[in-house]
Predict the 3D structure of the following.
Amino acid sequence: MSNAFQRVAKAIATDLSGLSSSEVETLIGLFRKSQPLLLLPNHSITVDYSASVEQLVEAGKYGWSNDDITSHNFPSFERGTAQVVVYLVNFNSDISSEDVIRELDRQGLRPATLKELLTLGVAQPDLQCKNRIVALDSTWRDFLGWVYVPFLDSSGGLYRYLGLHCRDDDWRLGCQFAAVRK
């Protein structure tokens, strides 16, 4: 827990007179468990899971998109619309996809799907100009057997694009991982 967050939690607990020491510890524990989600940048979006990948790519108005990002390669069985909060998680180091998924799970999150990523790109187009945003929940295997995941990025602010990255390669410092609550 960060020092500032710990001080705030203790100040709140200290100001609540009449709590036993175990109740104070319980309150601090609640803050400790919720801290990651409280501090993560997040964006509320409405995802239309019935829309095709092609429709969402077109709505994103990307300067370039990988031709392999299609409904055929990324089938989805979700339907309807849902209000979703997408958290952007940055681990501040190089990290493997497996470690990202394990840490997200520990925080009560799952990786975002392609349709959630694309909807985020439509709703918040400037986000990808700051950092690459990755959706680890949607994968595509090419004819050689390599597994790829989609990401949003920009070319030095000149244009926004939608690409694929090999899931087995480590992710560089600065990548953000789109995640939603389980």
